[in-house]
Amino acid sequence: MKEYQTITEISGPLVFVETDEPVGYDDIVEIELSDGETRRGQVLESASDYVAIQVFEGTEGIDRDASVRFLGETMKMPVTEDLLGRVMDGTGQPIDGGPEIVPDERRDIVGEAINPFSREYPEEFIQTGVSAIDGMNTLVRGQKLPIFSASGLPHNDLALQIARQATVPEEEEEGDDDEGSEFAVIFGAMGITAEEANEFMDDFERTGALERSVVFMNLADDPAVERTITPRLALTTAEYLAFEKDYHVLVILTDMTNYCEALREIGAAREEVPGRRGYPGYMYTDLAQLYERAGRIEGREGSVTQLPILTMPGDDDTHPIPDLTGYITEGQIYIDRDLNSQGIQPPINVLPSLSRLMDDGIGEGLTRADHADVKDQIFAAYAEGEDLRDLVNIVGREALSELDNKYLDFADRFEEEFVDQGTDTARSIDETLELGWDLLSMLPKDALNRIDEDLIEEHYREDETAEAVEAEA
Amino acid sequence: MSQATDTDVREDGIIESVSGPVVTARDLDARMNDVVYVGSEGLMGEVIEIEGNITTIQVYEETSGVSPGEPVEGTGSPLSVDLGPGMLDAIYDGVQRPLDVLEEKMGSAFLDRGVDAPGIDLEKTWEFTPEVEEGDAVEAGDIVGTVPETPSIDHKVMVPPDSEGGEVVAIESGNFNVEETVVELDSGEEIQMHQEWPVRQQRPTVEKETPTEPLISGQRVLDGLFPIAKGGTAAIPGPFGSGKTVTQHQLAKWADADIVVYVGCGERGNEMTEVIEDFPELEDPTTGNALMDRTCLIANTSNMPVAARESCVYTGITIAEYFRDMGYDVALMADSTSRWAEAMREISSRLEEMPGEEGYPAYLSARLSEFYERAGYFENINGTEGSVSVIGAVSPPGGDFSEPVTQNTLRIVKTFWALDADLAERRHFPSINWNESYSLYRDQLDPWFEDNVRADWPETRQWAIDTLDEEAELQEIVQLVGKDALPEDQQLTLEIARYLREAWLQQNAFHDVDTFCEPEKTYRIMDAAKTYNDAAFEALDAGVPVEEITDIDAAPRLNRIGVQEDWNEYIDDLEDEIESQLRELY
Ligand SMILES: Nc1ncnc2c1ncn2[C@@H]1O[C@H](COP(=O)(O)OP(=O)(O)OP(=O)(O)O)[C@@H](O)[C@H]1O
Ligand SMILES: [Mg+2]
Description:
Shape of chain B: globular
Subunit structure (chain B): Has multiple subunits with at least A(3), B(3), C, D, E, F, H, I and proteolipid K(x).
Largest sheet of chain A: 8 strands, mixed
Bound molecules: adenosine-5'-triphosphate, magnesium ion
CATH architecture of the largest domain in chain A: 3-Layer(aba) Sandwich
GO molecular function (chain B): ATP binding; hydrolase activity; proton-transporting ATP synthase activity, rotational mechanism; proton-transporting ATPase activity, rotational mechanism
Distance between the termini of chain B: 73 Å
Strand order of the largest sheet of chain A: 9-16-15-17-19-14-20-21
EC number (chain B): 7.1.2.2
Number of helices of chain B: 15
Largest interface: A-B, 85 and 77 residues
CATH topology of the largest domain in chain A: Rossmann fold
Radius of gyration of chain B: 27 Å
Oligomer: heterodimer
CATH superfamily of the largest domain in chain B: P-loop containing nucleotide triphosphate hydrolases
CATH topology of the largest domain in chain B: Rossmann fold
CATH architecture of the largest domain in chain B: 3-Layer(aba) Sandwich
InterPro entries (chain B): ATP-synt_VA_C, ATP-synth_a_Xtn, ATP_synth_asu-like_sf, ATP_synth_asu_arc, ATPase_a/bsu_AS, ATPase_F1/V1/A1_a/bsu_N, ATPase_F1/V1/A1_a/bsu_N_sf, ATPase_F1/V1/A1_a/bsu_nucl-bd
Enzyme class (chain B): translocase
Number of domains of chain A: 3
Helix content of chain A: 25-40%
Number of helices of chain A: 15
Number of strands of chain B: 26
Largest sheet of chain B: 10 strands, mixed
Radius of gyration of chain A: 25 Å
Helix content of chain B: 25-40%
Strand content of chain A: 15-25%
């Protein structure tokens, strides 16, 4: 291993070094400062006589006398089942004072793409206990479903609620006792505040979830460049647990916005031609290399389900971070500021939310035969009610037809009864769908044109309309 | 990727620098677009720039750990595909490596690097039946025999397009692998079932003809309002989650093409898996065989190397052209062309080329038109006629259609299916905006619809368009004053338009019956709405209040036609019922 003291330039998070021997692209580098401190970095560009290095812990304090060692390998994550229950920093160094980690394997953190031919299509319903998700935007095992939120909104509460409540109903019925041990949570924090981090850690400890969790913490005051490796460490661990050790892994990554800011910072330091709003042109590819590390593989027991959280700058979902994310993930859950201020918990706006894997994960034998139709009808009715809200502000309720008034009532009750359930209630899919029928029965039968007639006969509550009529009279 | 014939190895070069997918090499003797093998692991790459002694290469595999000083080996041939029996029912990456073979060779579900495989199985034997005899003169492109490639498709074995032709001196029926000679010409040329063709070069044809036949999609809004021709081009732009992929999948499933080439370009792995799992189970509506029998998949997902994403659309269209040469109608879907454009941008920026609009290279528009130009209805060099229809999804950042990829695409394609986030949000699917979309093929396809569906197809469609237009205008007023403030006839029009939207334009891709709608059914649903319209206005003229007209309980049944298997009967009954219920009101 050759050591160089030939730094020629230091710029932002980058260090340029003259070399006389070839260095591998992406290889790991150690930089030793004059005071003995060592920092780590990665080769971003390798030419025959110089390399550009991105330093994870930042370049502050590095001078041209620092010595640079190339380790001759790309970044690795030591993986083992013993990682469960451990807390590490954003570069994978334990910070919980626990025993040294004896790895089973050291895995490249960039990860190889799953061969599309080897994937298995995800279609196993995960019951999160949250009606707005289970009923309207169902999550399945192996899906990547981000939470689109914004600053000041309770996205963490929702993520925690899901992590706490998530079950796969079928397995419960089979009375599989080991089921609990097969479930693992990987938590990758990027640039979140210590307060937020505590919120997660307290909840993990309170519920005993920590034992089956692996935590990677890069906090707001930790180096920004480090954020580009934290999710890769988390996902490498997840893939190992899922595809070697048969765990069903739920990966929570927060906050992807901070991750993207770090990418932007590196791009700017390299004087790259920026893409939209200053973010690198390759951000789509970069994000895809994270988000696509979810799924199922044919012949393997485990699965990687991703729940990335991002805060939309300016609540704007056309901003490159949510936009590119939405183009890669299999749907998204929107946290809504208005619903939040109305006190709806969790404040999920179901209309722009979407689960693309829902269609194959629901229905007879999976959830319930009426699920798809009920969902379609609720969407249609709620959208109708939402539209009418604008109009009613102008013309007043009296100017609207009887049916239109019912749609307005439907929209209100949908938010107050269906969406609003609090952070501690877990509803079964049956409860969710029955609640759906309670609400739909406010509408006349022939307005339910998205639902199969037989299903209407089976589930429609005749008395609800009667009640509604009485109430009006 | 073409690997079947041994190419002479040229002189080696040495890696000079590595930056992501872009590698430069010194002293490499190679031509533009030649395939090279990079580094000690032999990663596949393509020459994209030559400047003096320095050759720039885009590498189709991950370059982590590759260092300057490692060797680069030229192959002396451009990036080509292997053509021959065995491409249907196959799934390839962006440079035509079969993903099932890679899985086996790598022994892993993850894509390792440095592993190559020919695009078609070189060992497998096929039953060859001659179509010409000894003594016959054949020219480039001529069909010399057939092979039952799948239950749906007879593969035509053709004289390569660059052949001199000649007289057949030997031809034999029997089982051969693709490298064995099946025909010998007097010139000494030997013809095998296997051909190669460089992907960036269009395969020759005699001429492009004006398309007159629709590519029936089984989707009402497309066939009914915005049809695409066989040999036509279409773009589907839309924000994330608006239905581009579902529409492309629907076309791949139900379009009445002979062959479907589906290119998953920089999109999700699971979407390809879905096709791999579904298509073998689904029935081709025309032949009754498994859909997979007519399908070739190319999957270069978003996390696979970006350079191979750049080339995957070319791999796809070259395969499509090859089947066109056999006289087939081929439909190619590319999801998404934006990811292809972004791959160009990424490579271009690593080359430090002068960026054009939004960082895209200045040649973006030229590349897009070159690609779409390869679509068309052609007279082939062997005298057959065949077509390549191209349907490209576009993923505009922020859903804003004014960005370069959408705009440059719209300048070329003739069909525009505009997806609308608002419609998607209210789960109006397919969320194709009927006010913004257009098809420039409409008039030239009308005769086909008149002859093959109904003589008054164009008029009935015009009625539907007018009704929907009027609705759009009226909605603006309703937003201000409410529906009840409108005159009765306008209220009625709104109601009719609502049925057109719900019963006709909306179509559930996930419903077993509704997923596919033959043109006759498309016509009849539209016509049923018109029947209601005509009878309703008669009633209104006779003095019946609009609420009573819209309240008849037969009307909502219009929305259930889509899911009916016996729709003909259902519509007959329903039309009678609507008319008689309205008659009773006056
Ligand atoms: N014709 C349809 N019928 C029923 N549902 C549909 C239809 N079209 C779209 N959808 C719904 O919309 C969702 C999103 O569609 P799709 O995945 O095609 O979007 P997209 O435009 O390809 O998005 P992206 O750009 O992110 O890939 C689907 O998962 C499905 O739930
Ligand atoms: Mg898509």
